[in-house]
Amino acid sequence: MQFREDINGLRAIAVIAVVLFHFNSSWMPGGFAGVDVFFVISGFLMTGIIFKGLEQENFSILRFYVARANRIIPALALLCIILLIFGWFFLSPTEYKALGKHAVSSVGFISNNIYWLESGYFDSSSHEKWLLHTWSLSVEWQFYIIYPILLVLSSKVLSLKMTKRILLLGTVIGFVFCVLVTYKWPNASYYLFPSRAWEMMIGGVAYLYPSRFGNKQNKVIEIIGVLFILGSYFFVTKETPWPGYLAIFPVLGSFLIIQANSKNSFITGNILFQKVGAWSYSIYLWHWPLVVAIAYFSLSKNFIYIGIISSVILGYLSNKYIEKIKFLNDFNTPISYLRSKPIIIAISTVSLGLIVYSTNGFFKLSPIEYQNLINSSTPSPYRNMCHISEYRAPEKSCEYFGSRITWATFGDSHSTEIAYAMALRLKEKNIGLKHFSFSGCKPSYKEPDSFSVCAKWYNESVSYILESKEIKNVIFNHRFTNMLFGGTAEHYPVVDEPTVTNEAIRLTKHMDELILKLAESKDNIYIFLPIPELNKNIFKLINNARKSNVSLHDITSTDINWYYERNKYIINHFNSAEFPSNVHFLNPADAFCNSEKCFAVRNGIPLYFDDNHPSVLGAIELVKLIE
């Protein structure tokens, strides 16, 4: 296709936003929408390639696939190989195994599905995934696989003219579908191809239905498009359901800039944007591992600027020496396409990742004490099945072991392992437990369904517990401080003073009402105060201790005073509030801390499976606090 400076400049507008957002989200709160801009560009270019081939009756699907592989795989595979080499020296076996898995899924272009199953894009654990950003490449590749096949079939069965109309209609339907699923299945809609397809298809519409306005009108269209994109960058945040209806702004903005087709535009045609646009793919590839490295090694904020500069330099080098390699694109027979060098590179990289993954990050080469700790830092075996992140009717909640269900646990993800540990304890008496937990759930009692993703579930579950004549004892627990005010132990030993908002006061008041209501009809209510948070993932702490030749029997993390200072609001509130005698407050610090420090590993027992959730063994220690 003829080179278009405006599209190259649009790439720069996209990658700059993504890079700034990832290094410091406060600079550009909606910078992640740059990925949506990339999708539109990709749809425009791919539609042009496919339709030109169909019009000239010489389009080859295999040749199209290999051309995409030549463009994408070499730089991506190099990044994966370098990270796998880096991981051998710096990562723990558990982390190295995860990297191997992610390298395989990235080069195999299924990483969006893997990350969807693992967690949300904006979760704190995202900064532990060196290849998280490759989810968007997987979405694009899935588009490249499906899109030409559908267009070829449609052009043969119908006509090119009708195919264009179907694409236009499909884009509208795709947008409506995206809006609906974003609110019903937010994590799935963010990562998966079906809810993103319309963004690439609208790029195809821009190619098939070009603007017929004059230069003056196109200048206005370009400016409107830029304003739409910049508006999404600065007024959308990671709290915004995405991609919902608001995704129309960066997508439509990209569509308008492409339609304007402005030549010699100062906005998209300036030399800086032209250079950054040319290097954009490689900048995108390299910037995220640098973001993760800053978090992983707990580097100071000054390294953000070094990371941004390094992203550009590495992007330039990758573009010059890797992306510009000319690989053979056309082969004589279908089987001969297997000689394509990028495909061979991809197979080799996947094989290396599989070796790392299948050996558990070469886990058995580590000391036996270390192996035992890692093997014991596990979540509940029922976590994936019983802990939910999307609505599930309360009556479908998991029940554990005993035939007489007289206990229930209720709360967010911190209650999941507590539920399992308590169920193990009750099993001896043939008493069962019903488990209610929703990921990242704010206390939402008496709040409308629109208040949070869990509000409907929350209130229905409370009603279920209250109405149940069998349930006599309830364990209630939340990550209270985090849910009310945010923040983690990431910046330890600094404690961010929470701003007590009207919402926090209201939610606290409603929690009190809920506790009192439960106490009226139940024998005992047990409330866990906040579980101490680690300043690093437990695997990092164990790995650091091993590398420093420190005893693995006891590994400390934060100070006990920091714990009380961080959770001062909720602890002071519960200490000062009046509750009946059947309401019992349990302090996890009694099990996880001494008079000075809180532990990650205590008496040889790993108390967590990440940086804030108790492991099964840790939860067993916690439920010992229940008389």
Automatic annotation (TrEMBL):
Keywords, comma-separated and alphabetical: Acyltransferase, Membrane, Transferase, Transmembrane, Transmembrane helix
Cellular component GO terms, alphabetical: membrane
Cited Pfam families: Acyl_transf_3, SGNH
Transmembrane as UniProt keyword: yes
UniProt keyword annotation of Transmembrane present: yes
BP GO terms, sorted: lipopolysaccharide biosynthetic process
Transmembrane spans: 7-25, 31-51, 72-91, 141-159, 166-183, 220-236, 242-258, 278-297, 303-322, 343-363
Domain SGNH: 386-626
Sequence ranges assigned to domain Acyltransferase in this UniProt record: 6-316
PANTHER family on file: ACETYLTRANSFERASE, ACYL_TRANSF_3 DOMAIN-CONTAINING PROTEIN
Entry protein name: Acyltransferase
Native species: Pseudoalteromonas distincta
Organism ancestry: Bacteria, Pseudomonadati, Pseudomonadota, Gammaproteobacteria, Alteromonadales
